[in-house]
Amino acid sequence: MIQKIKKYSTTNTLVIFGIIFGVLFGILFPELALKQQVIGQIFISFLKMLVVPLVFSSIYIAIMGLGSLNDLKSIGLKTIGLYLLTTALAVLLAIAVMNLVPIGEPTSVEGLEYVKASQVAPFTFEAMILSFIPTNIFNSLADGSMMQIIVFSILFAIASMHLHVKRQELMLDFFTAVTNAMLTMAEWVIKLTPIGVFSLISYVIAEQGVDVVLGLWKYLLMVISVLLIHAVVTLPALLAIFAKINPFKYLSDVREAPIMAFSTASSAATLPVSMRIAEEDGGVDEKHASFVLPLGATVSMDGTAAYLTVAVLYISHLAGVDLSLMDQVLLGVTVVALSVGVAALPSASLVMMVVILNQIGLPVEYIALIVAVDRILDMARTSLNVTSDLVVVKIIDQIQKTTIKEK
């Protein structure tokens, strides 16, 4: 654990240096900064490379980890339903706040004509539903159609539960190995973040000037405000309604885990702490903590979903793209679905940011504008992710205990 914290802290320090030197390089040597853009493009390509296998394998093992179909129908459905509910509420909150207090003035960048941005297709419910269903999964995998991959991986995992036990174990071992390999590769790519940040930042500074970057304080404040509202209003309300306990006392008792998450910016690194705190200080049954929290580290991403929603809407404003209400609803559905496949690693949401920007038709170069404060926001949103996990496990625990008493 200490080694992981030290490793992530080192990465954070290097990213800060990458930002500083990128800004200086873009100001002092704009011509060179424009020519080295390929380095940033390579970094983004590495992020894209991980998306499909990581999402497919992580969702598969999350569903298979539920065990039997009976478990899937009982505690599994309750758990996933609550996780999706909290994530959806976080996304709705982000959309509402961004519409009430829109930030991001339209900007234009010479050399980055927003051709794709004008190709946002009109929303229809039929088109949305059909877009979720793959007609050829191999085409979906090759094209990186995330929604279709998610639907197929869920159905594939459920179908795998009908196989012989030995074959189930074989399949689970295989996809667990795939996930672990992808996570290892993700760690390698994340180590390249300082270089990627340097390249992207210096290019944007050289192309747009420093004024745009200085305007990020509104974006930073907006993301943190949405995360705080969800943490102190939405989640406590769910605890009070479903678990019927004093939410703030419970959150105070388990505060060590979100603090650890803030320090490491990793849900995976925080998982052992979350399980111990939930059991010892939160009064959660061991079997519920052992089942719900590991699943939450994969599928519960309230902070990440809220962050992605604010970031994409902010980028759309910068690009001068006015998304309709139904476009924003579709964005929300996509973010909720994709957040399930976000790896529990620092800055892994950058992977999903690339996917969403491509889907909407916005240039991925805009990631450079928000990556300057991404590490700070990464710690904040990871802390909210873990807080949401602790809220859901307590609700499940209280519901199960109440059900047993009634029987």
UniProtKB/TrEMBL annotation:
Q: What is the protein name stated in its UniProt record?
A: Dicarboxylate/amino acid:cation symporter
InterPro entries recorded: Na-dicarboxylate_symporter, Na:dicarbo_symporter_sf
Keyword Transcription regulation carried by entry: no
A Pfam family that this protein carries is SDF
Q: Which GO terms describe its molecular function?
A: symporter activity
How does the UniProt record describe the way this protein sits in the membrane?
Multi-pass membrane protein
Q: Which GO terms describe its biological process?
A: dicarboxylic acid transport
Q: Which UniProt keywords apply?
A: Cell membrane, Membrane, Transmembrane, Transmembrane helix, Transport
Species: Candidatus Sulfurimonas marisnigri
Q: What Gene3D superfamilies does the entry give?
A: Sodium:dicarboxylate symporter
Q: Which GO terms describe its cellular component?
A: plasma membrane
Location comes to:
Cell membrane
TM ranges: 12-30, 42-69, 81-101, 146-165, 186-205, 217-245, 295-316, 328-345
